[in-house]
Amino acid sequence: MREILPFNDDWRFFAKFTPDLIHKKQPGQPVRLPHNAADLPYNYFDENSWHQKYCYQKSFSLENKDNNQVYSLIFDGAMANNKVYLNGTHLTSHTNGYTPFEVSIGEPLSDGENLLTVVLDGSENPEIPPFGGLIDYLTYAGIYRDVWLKSVPKTSIAEIKAETLNVLERQKSLIIWSKIHGDVKIDPPMTVTHTLRHPEGNLIAETSSVITEQEITLHIDGLVDIELWDIDNPILYNLTTHLTSKDIDDLITTTIGFRTAEFTPKGFFLNGKSLQILGLNRHQSYPYEGYAMGRRAQEKDAEILKYDLGCNLVRTSHYPQSPWFLDHCDRIGLLVFEEIPGWQHIGEGAWKERTLDNVERMIRRDWNHPSIILWGVRINESHDDHDFYAETNALSRKLDPTRQTGGVRYITDSEFLEDVYTMNDFIQGNEELPGVNHQRIPLRKQREVTGLNKSVPYLVTEFNGHTFPTKRTDHEQRQVEHVERYLSILDKAFGDDEISGCIGWCFADYNTHKDFGAGDRICHHGVMDMFRNPKFASYVYSSQKNPYEHPILKPVTYWARGERNIGGVLPLIILTNCDYIELQYGSDLAATEYPRRDIYPNLPHAPVIFDHNSFGEEEMGHWKKNWENVTFNGFVDDEVIICFSMVGNPVASRMEVNADWRWLKSDENDETRLVVKALDQIGNVLPYFDDPLTISITENGRLIGPDLINFRGGIATFWVRSTPLRGPMDITILSPRFPTMSYRLYVI
Ligand code: GAL
Fold this sequence. Notes:
Blueprint lengths: L2 E4 L4 E4 L14 E3 L21 E8 L8 E7 L6 E5 L2 E6 L6 E4 L9 E8 L25 E7 L2 E10 L6 E10 L9 E7 L5 E8 L4 E9 L13 E8 L4 E8 L4 E4 L2 E4 L2 E2 L2 E5 L13 H14 L4 E4 L6 H10 L2 E5 L9 H18 L5 E5 L9 H14 L4 E3 L14 E4 L21 H5 L7 E5 L13 H19 L6 E4 L5 E2 L10 E2 L14 H5 L10 E3 L16 E5 L3 E6 L3 E5 L14 E3 L6 H8 L5 E7 L2 E8 L7 E6 L3 E2 L6 E9 L12 E6 L3 E4 L3 E3 L4 E8 L4 E8 L6 E7 L1
Parallel strand pairs: 21-22, 21-28, 22-23, 23-24, 24-25, 26-27, 39-46
Antiparallel strand pairs: 1-10, 2-3, 2-4, 4-9, 5-8, 5-10, 6-7, 6-9, 11-12, 12-15, 13-14, 13-16, 16-17, 18-19, 19-20, 29-30, 31-32, 32-35, 33-34, 33-36, 36-37, 38-40, 40-44, 41-43, 41-45, 42-44, 45-46
Helix pairs in contact: 1-2, 3-4
Bound molecules: beta-D-galactopyranose.
The site of beta-D-galactopyranose has 11 residues, from loops.
């Protein structure tokens, strides 16, 4: 039988590697995986300070070791240049920090206690992608994903690939390729059986065959009443593969979806229906903790992208991301453009070989995810390299002929070797184009970029980013411009049927090298800050959602008379999906405005803008008197479905704490985010409130980051992590301005 068990507990960590750790058990720092080798401050750190070797040890014995089983360890991700030793014997090395590797532990395994040692290197070794040049992100040393102990029969299922066929026809087909590990002839007859089940468990189809070779491909045809996997109905079917003989019994279950996904010169089609891609780029990093966040933190990011922001796609810039994240994208219906590690630089021979290996490992790990619709097989923004990219494309097509390839570039007229011309179009940063002095062009037409004389499948994979970095706490006028840039770029994309859509740079701010960002080691390029708190621009996305399900009304203002240059709040953009907005200022100034389709004709939901024309001459006089309160009423079908007010005299009144969830699992590294808000008298965040606060936590919890922090723009955010100790976890928040607050979580 197969067993795959978490192997994350009871590791010892050594911040300094010494060779004796390979064969000698030492008392290190007790840790549980995922683990970040060097915790970092929020900003202004020296990113070179953790460029060194680290080590992990784990002592274990396999109590019920079965000599008929084969044992191995699976590392989902460890950064980087990893070397694994068991009882002093070197078992394997794996250079890449983003792809999984499996190591057989059969041979040196003793019946008593075993010593496992993992040595890894936090330096940016130029021999390994993405390193060798500058990169605009950090890679965080550590065994930062899960490790699993796998035990399977001597002959077992190594891999499954399920390809769907005739998906848009009534009778659909499934082709299942499986690869067997071990001797398939030892114990004949050996049989492979595939069973397809509905999510509720009822049997749909079954096929079976005797196997005599390592690989076998079986077809299931005539599948009827199958629902398509779609972003609104992400239905996953269970495919079980069973390998049996007299002595062998191995079984794995994969989830699959039936869908078609195709980029064409006339846009993207999901299940034959046109879908405008509305996406964001995600780095998998978090403040203080780098990459080492557990399952639910990964899933939360997918949920923020899908549910809060209303995105239909995420690009895993610039590497394969956590399996937890991708599994959740399958479950919630968030499309994925997945990409190999790299950033502008292409290395020499061995480096290129490693990239090919990365392409292969990424595709083999993830080919059964229905959410993944495109493989990125070019080093992000690298120059053309015919032979190299002909090879990455050929490899991708050979491994997975069902998905198209993309290769992200920022150069124009680049050699088109992929199936989709994927372009980082930062033209909006160029304000001095000849003839259009100081006018911004949101996006280019595809032929201007490709230089081709025909239209091709085309997707904008980045925009904005460094062309207009904006902090959540930036001045209101900058935020307004940030919003306007997003509005005009998305509007342009929606209006051009030769652009399949666009993916903004980026989802959340991220730590980076000194050569990028604001010098504080942060690229403030997100529509959210590093803690996933929204900036105004994020509402450009969320306001495109269906108003009946998610009414949105977000005025792009802090509502203060003197924040903007000269003063006032006009023109005032309201990001909304309402039919119209009524504004009530004080008691006697009111106006109604409708979405500005004249400026943004293509967006599903254009914003409403109040300006001087919204009010009569006489009424304008009211603005000059006392600074008053304001209320906005949002109407859909002539009924108010959302209301939002702001006060003219905000006073710090209370603190509010919310957690993403209130219970945590004790048997894994489970984290929840806590967001503390400083609020005014009607519950709005105070945008420039920066007081300090102290956090303490009971012993069954771990605070991620320092315990003395400050509100940044009225919001203080931190994560807490579970420990194996069950019971209530109390978090106390002490602030000089507000009464002390206690917040209880439960570790179960
Ligand atoms: C792109 C790059 C991203 C990020 C972005 C900032 O050129 O692909 O990784 O650096 O610029 O705008």
